[in-house]
Amino acid sequence: MKAFLILFIFDFYSVFCILKLYSIMKKIIVFASGSGTNAENIIKYFAKTKIAKVVSVFTNNAAAKVIERAKNHQIPTEIFSKSELLESNLLQKIQEIDPDMIVLAGFLLKFPDHIIEKYPNKIINIHPALLPNYGGKGMYGMHIHRAIVNNKEKETGISIHYVNEHYDEGGIIFQKNVALTDDDTPETVAEKIHELEQKYFPEIISRLLED
What we know:
seven-stranded mixed sheet, globular, alpha/beta, single chain
């Protein structure tokens, strides 16, 4: 009986510690529009840490691969339309989660001002070029990589920045460059950028949440 009681107390304490740790971990919402490779990388990165966890993935694309990736990791998803992004209901859903950070990882719509106002310096984005170059409306993905190759740039890179009311104009948090050669194509540039995104994006998110 005594051994059973000790085991019960130990198990109860273990569960309590796990629940306590889970409750103090910071919460991340990821917004994505496409395949979700960066979103999944962030999910996997923080699943191995005690700093934070991705608690939900929001997407404006019901056919996006990111939905399947999130479900594979038991992360709930929220699907919304472009018009719903501008409505108060979506903000309410975000507020119910009460995130410590909102991460835009391949999210192609302009983020609405009313959400930015509620979460100042808590919304970040990754851009596949060295801002302020190749930023602005319509500059994303292969559009950027083609422009960089056509302009015979000698380097490109990634920019992680805060989100404000203008496309790609929020304060820059981190940049990393990569050299290009005359043999690079838009496809090889995309591969180089993807490597930088996978390595540095989760690390910078973690650094911001620890500050």
